[in-house]
Amino acid sequence: MKLRSSPPSPFGRKVKIAAKLLGLYDQITVENGDTKDPQDALRQQNPLGKIPILILQDGDCIYDSRVILDHLNELAQGSLIPKDSTERRKAQTLQALADGLMDASILIVYETRMRPDNERSPSWIDYQSEKITRGLDHLEHQCANPQSGPELNLETGVHVGHIALACALGYRDLRFGTDWRTTYPNLATWLAAFEAKVPAFAQTKFDPDA
Ligand SMILES: N[C@@H](CCC(=O)N[C@@H](CS)C(=O)NCC(=O)O)C(=O)O
Predict the structure, then answer these.
(1) Where does residue 88 rank: exposed (0-12), middle (13-18), buried (19+ CB within 10 A)?
(2) Is the CB–ligand 1 distance for residue 95 below 6 Å?
(3) Do residues 155 and 87 lie in contact, with contact meaning Cβ atoms separated by under 8 Å?
(4) Is the pLDDT of residue 149 over 70?
(5) Averaged pLDDT, 34-41
(6) What letter does residue 109 receive in the DSSP assignment?
(7) How far apart, in Å, are the Cα atoms of 126 and each of 16, 46, 77, 149, 155?
(8) Ligand 1 centre and the CA of 35: distance in Å?
(9) pLDDT digits 0-9 by tens, 71-109
(10) The whole model's pTM is what?
(11) Dist. CA 70 → ligand 1 center (Å)
(12) For residue 196, how many other CB atoms are within 10 A of its CB?
């Protein structure tokens, strides 16, 4: 299988961590994709022109990260997606929230990277930032009140929601700095616990200075 991604992509990181946890990483070749290059085949592989894309052995291209994680989990008969329907719903809702944090973060990054100064919209950036603040507030509350929902509990096994949340927080570190830890200490503790439990998180960290 071939994974089209790029080293800083938080969605690509989800796939890499899942593949490592499932013991499938050795079966995957990672090929960098340039979403801005019209000549890059990724626009044929995914008409949306987004990464990650997983190209299967029969040439089939699958996306997005949620579909890829679902496929890899099925391939390995893994437990990244809980079998119990309530647990599965919670894990997938956490994944949707974390993916949304990454979407909002990426839109803020693109606003500054892709638009000239005079075309930027502070109110659009605020609109996206508010989504991130509401999401992190909600997750901090969940961490501080574990009885309000078990989905952050790592003791019972790592699932897709945990992987996505770790990648969302890792992307925050990469693009917006580490200050969020002061405002969200319980979430910071949660991320440290995830990192200790899942070596693949450190192994897939993008170092912009390397
Ligand atoms: N929902 C998608 C989001 C993927 C995504 O936004 N990827 C970014 C890179 S991290 C991208 O390809 N951006 C290029 C674009 O939006 O055109 C997923 O879960 O895979």
Answers:
(1) middle
(2) no
(3) no
(4) no
(5) 97
(6) H
(7) 31, 30, 42, 29, 36
(8) 9
(9) 999 999 999 999 999 999 999 999 999 999 999 999 999
(10) 0.97
(11) 17
(12) 11
Q: Please, where in the chain does CATH 3.40.30.10 lie?
A: 2-75
The sheet that has 53-55: what strands, in order across it? 29-32, 2-5, 53-55, 61-62
**The CATH number of domain 85-202 is 1.20.1050.10:** yes
Give the residue whose CA is nearest to atom 12 of ligand 1: 50
pLDDT band at 41 (very low <50, low <70, confident <90, very high): very high
Whether 79 and 157 have beta carbons less than 8 Å apart is answered as yes
- Any idea which fold 2-75 has? Glutaredoxin (3.40.30)
Measured in degrees and rounded to the nearest 5, phi and psi for residue 69 equal -60, -40
The DSSP line for 6-35 is -TT-HHHHHHHHHHHHTT-GGG-EEEE--T
